[in-house]
């Protein structure tokens, strides 16, 4: 019997999630902020250069980073779509926005987001949390989804800023605030 590769990969992912999922135990060695949310990881810094296909994500014309990546460009991993939103939206109509963050293993989960509307700007602050489990899958994800909605009050350009942080693989104590910015066209 021949098994389709598609089913094999799906089965493997489900098996890993089921076998090594964040199981509780008495000896928990999770971060001290396990039960509460922390600023979500939007950039992950690697100690070595990454494949160029992953570096291309940082140079997408639709996203502007602050502070800019600088010399670390070849070592930064970011979600494929940091900010998911339509390119064109209608004035006064609810706009769904998704901010994707990075979960470095299976114990990390999206933990909501706040949104603040300041005129033509929407500022989304995304939060993640660690389950507190001692054992986690080693499956990374760049799709911890933080969903919010907003309305833009005027025709013109709307600005969405996603606030998160940069983490460093070689230094679990490193954390630097980072902002991803994307614009949308607001039509009548």
Radius of gyration: 18 Å
- The low-confidence runs, each spanning 5 or more residues with pLDDT under 50, are 1-35
Tally of DSSP helical segments? 2
Task: Name the helix and strand elements from N-terminus to C-terminus, one letter apiece.
Answer: HEEHEEEEEEEEEE
Name the beta content range: over 45%
By secondary-structure content and strand pairing, the structural class works out as mainly beta
Q: What characterizes the major β-sheet?
A: 9 strands, mixed
Q: Percent range for helical residues? A: 10-25%
User: Which term fits the overall shape?
Assistant: globular
Rounded mean pLDDT score: 80
Task: State the separation between the terminal residues, measured CA to CA.
Answer: 58 Å
Number of strands: 12
Describe this structure in words.
The strands form two sheets. Strands 1, 2, 3, 4, 6, 8, 9, 11 and 12 form a nine-stranded mixed beta sheet that branches. Strands 5-7-10 form a three-stranded antiparallel beta sheet, with no helix packed on it. The chain has helices at residues 5-19, 52-55, and strands spanning 38-39, 41-45, 64-66, 76-77, 83-84, 88-90, 95-103, 108-118, 121-130, 141-150, 156-168, 171-187. 10% of the residues lie in helices and 46% in strands. The chain is globular, with a radius of gyration of 18 Å. It is mainly β and 188 residues long.
